[in-house]
Amino acid sequence: MGSIYLDGRTPGYKPLDQVIRDAGLTLLLWDGWENNTRSSGGFESLLGTVLHHTAGSATGSFENDWAYHAVGHADAPVANMLLGRQGQVGLHAGGASNHAGKGGPWTASRGIVPLDSANSRMLGIEAQNTGTGEYWPEQMIDAYERLLAAINNAYGLNPMLDEPAHFQWAPSRKIDPWGGNQSTTGFPYTGPHSWDMGGFNQNVAARMQGVPHPPDPAVDDGSNVHLASMYLGGK
Asked: Around Cβ 57, how many Cβ atoms within 10 Å?
């Protein structure tokens, strides 16, 4: 059984709800989120975060989708939180959750996530999107980057190594997060294909250094690439 819970009970791990609040994001808490975990309990270690999309309905409400991920799915809790289309975050699991499934292994900055073992070692973020070309709203992508920057800063994680997409963890069977038919304004990595995770990771790296809404590295002046190199041991 894993022993790391992100509700404040485990020494050295800041409460996840406070991390999200400190990012300035709208936070909703599922009643009992602290103890809502997969059968293995808490995390065995915390080595990163896996990014997902829900592949649900384009008209599904946040409340219904959140309830499904928190308690309604046969394997609930699915992921630790749901990111809504308006940029709100619903936190529903304080320990390990089900989200990554078979895949890996993954080389993270602080160790190896073994084959098929991301659920017990990596946070999961589900994001409301059909995965069939739905446009990603600007406020949602902004929140996704801010959320990852806050999580990385709080838990000492590396944005270039510790925030894989689901398609990177399980490339033979997953595509998420999948981009919209039209790229999101200011965030061109979002479409129209599986996200360019280099663009996402480098934007998160910049936000961790206090740079608001950095431009995508494909079109910027090189400053984001410099910030990213800091996390890879560059100068």
From this structure: 11
**What is each CA distance from 74 to 45, 58, 69, in whole angstroms?**
25, 22, 9
Look at the pTM and tell me if it is higher than 0.90. yes
Predicted local distance difference test score (pLDDT) of residue 234: 44
* Cα–Cα distance for residue pair 155/136, rounded to 1 Å: 27
Quote the tokens at residue 74. 């046969």
Q: Which two tokens stand for residue 67?
A: 């309830």
Determine the Cα–Cα distance for residues 179 and 197; give it in Å rounded to an integer: 11
Residue-level pLDDT at 235: 35
Average pLDDT, stretch 201-210? 97
Q: Which domains does the chain have, with CATH numbers?
A: 16-230 (3.40.80.10)
Distance CA 210, CA 184 (A): 22
